[in-house]
C-alpha cells in the first residue's frame, strides 16, 4: 500500500506539474513564434498570418490555464502580507487553512461556471469568426485545468490540516 501511495504522490507532485509546465512553456513559445512571424509577414512582406489574432487568443488562454495549477501547487498566488505578523503558531495554521479552503471554493465555483459555459458553447456551436475554431473545446480544456487547480488547492488545505509538507512527509 505504501508503494502505491508513494507512486501517487510522485505522479501528483512531480509528473503532472512537469507536464503542465512543459505544455505551458511550449504554448508560450508557439505564441511568441506566431507573433514574430505575423509581424515580419505584415511589415516586410505585406502578408500577415491569417487568423493570428484568434490563434494568439487561444494560445494565451491555454498558457494561463495550464499555469494555474502550477501556481496553485506552489502556493504562488499573489498575496498581501499586511497582517501576517499578527498570526503565530496555531492561529497561523488556521489562517492558512481558511485561505486554502477559500481557494477551493473560489476555484470550484470557477470550474463549475466554466463547465456550464463550455456546455452552452457546445450547444450553440460557438466558433471563432475567421478560423472557425470551436470555443467549446477550448472552454472544456480550461475547465479541466481549473479542476486540477481546485484539486491542488484541496491538497494544500489537507496538507495544512494534517501538517505534512508538499512531499507528503509528516512534520
TrEMBL record:
Its main location: membrane. The keyword Cell cycle does not apply. The chain crosses the membrane at residues 12-37, 57-76, 97-115, 135-158. It is found in: Cell inner membrane. Keywords: Cell inner membrane, Cell membrane, Membrane, Transmembrane, Transmembrane helix, Transport. One of its GO terms (molecular function) is transmembrane transporter activity. One of its GO terms (biological process) is C4-dicarboxylate transport. Pfam families: DctQ. InterPro entries: DctQ (IPR055348), TRAP_DctQ (IPR007387). GO terms for cellular component: plasma membrane. Residues 31-156 form the Tripartite ATP-independent periplasmic transporters DctQ component domain. The keyword Flavoprotein does not apply. It is a multi-pass membrane protein. The complex comprises the extracytoplasmic solute receptor protein and the two transmembrane proteins. Belongs to the TRAP transporter small permease family. Part of the tripartite ATP-independent periplasmic (TRAP) transport system. This is TRAP transporter small permease protein. It comes from Eoetvoesiella caeni.
